[in-house]
Amino acid sequence: MVSWENIQASNTSLKNYGPNLVGVFVGGTSGIGESTARAFVKYAVSPRVYLVGRSETRASQIIEDLRALNPDGQINFIKGDVARLEEVDQACKEIQTKEDKINLLVLSAGILTMKGREETDEGLDKKLSLHYYSRMRFLYNLLPQLTNASNAQDAASGQSGLSRVLSVLDARGNAPLILNDLPLKENYSLRNCANHAITMTSLSMEELAASYPATSFVHTYPGLVKTSLARESGSLMKIALNAVFLLLTPMNVPLEESGERHLYAGTNPMFSPLNSKGDAAAIGSDGIQGSGSYLVGSDSATVSNQKVLEGYRADGTRASIWKHTLDIFKGIRGD
Ligand SMILES: NC(=O)c1ccc[n+]([C@@H]2O[C@H](COP(=O)([O-])OP(=O)(O)OC[C@H]3O[C@@H](n4cnc5c(N)ncnc54)[C@H](OP(=O)(O)O)[C@@H]3O)[C@@H](O)[C@H]2O)c1
């Protein structure tokens, strides 16, 4: 467990990266994404922030708060239903017209629902898209800007610029995949949907960390954080979830703490990209120090013993998952 003091000390040193860091928070209009954006704005010097989500009302309130928290920050809202890859592409284009570099991309758009498969007009399950395909599309589109961010070297230390992607899901939960039905057209269940989103995230992040060695990739498990995650569920689900939070109160991670812990995962130098690993680098998801992709738990420590990933790495499944993802993109968006 990384202590609260160490989390705060690390976040306070965010100013050492210099001014004008750019953070994109997909799912920044609520919950963990919002609280991570708040922490970013609190500690960064003259940051530029993009909150992506659907709720304009919520975004306006957050923007007002964030401007008061750091008057030198520039906070923008980009509206979109990002379960649709077309809207992901539009959001990315809007960001790319304004920014050459992105230092931190936080992916936390998601829903909690007990519904079965619910297809978007693009043919993907809505939940699997929000938790995996849409997030990977953001990442894929914004790789040039993430790579540019790493090129900005600090004159004094020689340290590369911050270039990191965070996906907030369940770093501990990697499980076997149904390899002949990755989008779960025939085998949909809530369990399978969670398993596929989680495990494909870990495998794709490893694959990308090797191909894009100037950027690091972190898959986090936030623990139990009381948010509005069940807002699209029925009232029974909301009551059940509230009961879980009540029963497990001692294990809940307060929302503000979760934001600070995610900022730590998003900025601490120990989660370094492959090309700038140092002696202090954390152990990567493949068991190798500083490999550029990391699994991080709610206590901000790395998660280990990921047997299922080991098998998929060895038999080439890891590479084929990323290829499948690119094929899905090509099928829906043409590239
Ligand atoms: N909270 C927990 O205890 C917990 C535990 C484990 C894992 N997680 C995972 O962490 C992630 C974040 O959860 P959270 O607790 O922060 O939930 P949250 O408070 O409900 O936030 C979810 C965010 O996703 C956005 N979103 C949902 N559907 C969208 C869509 N179609 N298009 C654009 N944006 C959309 C929402 O924005 P708009 O409403 O503005 O669209 C909101 O900003 C989720 O993937 C969840 O599965 C959470």
Structure explained in plain terms:
The chain has 335 residues and is an alpha/beta fold. The protein has a single domain, classed as 3-Layer(aba) Sandwich (Rossmann fold), CATH 3.40.50.720. Helix content is 44%, strand content 10%. The protein contains 10 helices and 7 strands. It has helices spanning 4-12, 31-43, 56-69, 85-98, 126-151, 190-211, 235-247, 255-267, 307-314, 317-333; strands at 22-26, 48-53, 74-79, 104-107, 164-168, 216-220, 293-296. A 7-stranded parallel β-sheet has the order 3-2-1-4-5-6-7, sandwiched between helices. β5 (164-168), α6 and β6 form a beta-alpha-beta unit. The longest helix is centred in the middle third of the chain and has 26 residues, at 126-151. The chain is globular, with a radius of gyration of 19 Å. 49% of the residues are buried. The mean pLDDT is 95. InterPro entries: NAD(P)-bd_dom_sf, SDR_fam, Sec_Metab_Biosynth_Oxidored. GO terms for molecular function: oxidoreductase activity. Keywords: Oxidoreductase.
Write the topology of this structure.
Elements: H1 4-12, E1 22-26, H2 31-43, E2 48-53, H3 56-69, E3 74-79, H4 85-98, E4 104-107, H5 126-151, E5 164-168, H6 190-211, E6 216-220, H7 235-247, H8 255-267, E7 293-296, H9 307-314, H10 317-333
Parallel strand pairs: 1-2, 1-4, 2-3, 4-5, 5-6, 6-7
Helix pairs in contact: 1-8, 2-8, 4-5, 5-6, 6-10
Bound molecules: NADP nicotinamide-adenine-dinucleotide phosphate.
Residues 27, 29-33, 53-55, 58, 81-83, 108-111, 130-131, 168-170, 222, 224-225, 227-229, 231 line the site of NADP nicotinamide-adenine-dinucleotide phosphate.
